[in-house]
């Protein structure tokens, strides 16, 4: 997996760009939010990446922030949402704006993004409500907005292991409050789950 690229921009024409990394040109597609932050051709840039493997092609996507890449990856898990629609969403709405849409169940805002019809918007709101990170307190947070507290990191790890957000929250409450490391919280939560 290619996680990031650091090199010189040799071509850019939205949504495509090329980065020369030690003599190898990597073609990428990027959302407009990333494009607007790119330096001019000939200058160095570092982008986080996500590789999509299809039957007919391998397509590399580039992102200026971890928040964008995380949301892109979450969107790809929604049934019927492919890389093109995910890219359109990131180009038409910020990460924070998307989180607000999901929190407020704002179908109208999503349908303003080109390529997003009412049915797709409704499906996104339903499926992303469960995919967006819930902090242990139960408040909604962005899939990418950094919360580096041990509780939030442990919560993210439990969700990545397949626990539903509500179950992960419950396990962390059982693990006990106090100043525990992320690893200790995960260990205690998993022990609690094993006892259930």
Summarize the structure.
The chain has helices at 32-35, 66-76, 83-92, 95-104, 107-111, 118-131, 150-160, 165-175, 182-195, and strands at residues 4-13, 16-21, 24-29, 44-53, 58-63. By secondary structure, it is an alpha+beta fold.
Q: How many separate structural domains?
A: 3
Return the CATH architecture of the largest domain. Answer: Orthogonal Bundle
Number of helices: 9
Radius of gyration over C-alpha positions, nearest whole angstrom: 19 Å
Order of strands across the main sheet: 3-2-1-4-5
| Count of beta strands | 5
What do we call the CATH homologous superfamily of the largest domain? 5' to 3' exonuclease, C-terminal subdomain
Query: Helix- and strand-based class?
Result: alpha+beta
Biggest sheet record = 5 strands, antiparallel
For the termini, the CA-CA separation is: 37 Å
Order of helices and strands: EEEHEEHHHHHHHH
What is the CATH topology classification name of the largest domain?
DNA polymerase, domain 1
Percent of residues in helical segments?
40-55%
Please, what is the average pLDDT? Answer: 83
Poorly predicted runs of 5 or more residues: 134-146
Task: Characterise this structure.
- The protein has 196 residues and is an alpha+beta fold.
- It has three domains: 4-63, OB fold (Dihydrolipoamide Acetyltransferase, E2P), CATH 2.40.50.140; 66-131, Orthogonal Bundle (DNA polymerase, domain 1), CATH 1.10.150; 150-195, Ubiquitin-associated (UBA) domain (Helicase, Ruva Protein, domain 3, Orthogonal Bundle), CATH 1.10.8.
- Helix content is 46%, strand content 19%.
- The chain has nine helices and five strands.
- Strands 3-2-1-4-5 form a five-stranded antiparallel beta sheet, covered by helices on one side.
- A hairpin with a 4-residue loop joins strand 4 and strand 5 (58-63).
- Helix 2 (66-76) crosses helix 3, helix 7 packs across helix 9 (182-195) and helix 8 (165-175) packs across helix 9 (182-195).
- It is globular and about 55 Å long.
- The two termini are 37 Å apart.
């Amino acid at each position: 997996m290619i996680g990031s690229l650091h090199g010189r921009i040799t071509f850019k024409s939205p949504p495509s760009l090329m980065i020369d990394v030690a003599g190898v040109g990597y073609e990428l597609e990027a959302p407009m939010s990333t494009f607007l932050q790119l330096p001019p051709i000939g200058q160095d840039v570092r982008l986080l990446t996500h590789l999509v493997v299809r039957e007919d092609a391998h397509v590399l996507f580039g992102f200026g922030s971890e928040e964008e890449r995380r949301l892109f990856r979450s969107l790809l898990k929604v049934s019927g949402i492919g890389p093109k629609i995910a890219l359109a969403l990131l180009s038409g709405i910020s990460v924070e704006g998307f989180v607000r849409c999901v929190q407020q169940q704002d179908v109208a805002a999503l349908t303003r993004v080109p390529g997003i019809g009412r049915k797709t918007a409704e499906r996104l709101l339903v499926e992303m409500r469960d995919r967006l990170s819930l902090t242990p307190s139960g408040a909604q947070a962005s899939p990418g907005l950094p919360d580096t507290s041990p509780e939030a990191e442990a919560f993210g790890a439990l969700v990545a292991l397949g626990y539903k957000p509500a179950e992960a929250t419950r396990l962390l409450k059982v693990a006990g409050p106090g100043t525990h490391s992320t690893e200790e919280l995960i260990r205690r939560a998993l022990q609690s789950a094993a006892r259930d």
